[in-house]
Write a structure and sequence with these properties.
Oligomer: single chain
Number of strands: 24
Length: 415
Amino acid sequence: MTERFLPFKTDGVLEAVASKSYLQRALAIAALANGPTLLRNYNMSSDAIAAQNIISCLGAKIRRNERLHIIPGKPDFSEDIILDADESGLSLRMFSFVAALYNKVIQISGKNSLLKRPIKPLVDALLQCGVQVKTTNGGLPIVICGPITKNKIELDGSFSSHMLSGLLIASPLLEHDTEIIVKNLVSRPYVAMTLNIMRQFGVNVENNNFRKFYIKGRQKYIGQEYVIEGDWSSAANFLVCAAISGKIEMTGLNQNSLQADIKIRDILVDFGAHIKIMNNFISVSKRHAKPFTTDLTDSPDLFPPVVVLAAAANGKSVIIGTKRLIHKESNRFDTLMSVFTKLGVKMQAEDNELHVFGNGYLNGGEVDSFNDHRIAMCSAIAGAIAKSDIIINNADVVKKSHPSFFDDLKKIICN
């Protein structure tokens, strides 16, 4: 699919799409709970569909209408259990630990970009837990056979927080208590998100400054009605678009959210946008366009829209945390450099930083998404400061997180 955006301005009202990060975690926990769960405000992204398919393979029954109705069940081990994470890194890593709750062989695989992403950190983490793991020539699919036997586990959190989230979700259901020691943890807010959902489903974890966790075994998740909050990651694109070209009002965003990408509010303030915040509501409008410095180590998904914001500023902006971009749906650092260099932005990489020399506009042109949903999104909002059309090839990858993204963007475009 190809999308074309003429230079545009923004003005309108949008409701934020539901967070896939919250939804995937809630689906995993609901499938392990005692009793049914009703999930409200869900987003049928391909990552969320992958998580639903996985819990179905693990025995859960799902009814889909205005709410997702999840009834937990047990896997049928009379047949081979094969879990397909599609292109979702979170589903692959989180559900590997859920699969390790069973003393049975379970295979986990994925598709397309996920097959190219490193598997060794996940394998090492599972082995640390005493789980049997077999790879396919060092990659996917992997075969896992639990249970998790270790009661004191050390994890390296420098690659991703997904493994820790998966282990935290699984640990309360073990027969023994578990102590987890974590070194070099990245994306701490995502672990806070996991702990928050676990607590709301009735499970407690003792957290010592995100370095050491103590989890009592034989706990139970309690099924309940749970509302998935709006997604700051997707919303950041619309908020940036307004800050550089007009105005927007967005509802459905928790202003006290634990999501890492709520950081976009602070970045927009530093950029000079006019911001008004109320409960569950934010408005952003164009005012100044000042260069800024920000550290996105814990919120790497913000890099694409923030590069657009930096291009709209007048002067050098510094974005820290580029090392977190290598192992995404694409090598997101390389793709950002490729796309925005083509659109006329001067950029310079220095160690763990990206220096963007903005001058307030972009050239138009034809770019590719590199099969990365966030590259497709930021290329679209770049049209707000482009001198001519921006054409995006392979644009349908937005279905991974926000299937209605282009339709929503077109609702707020005015010329």
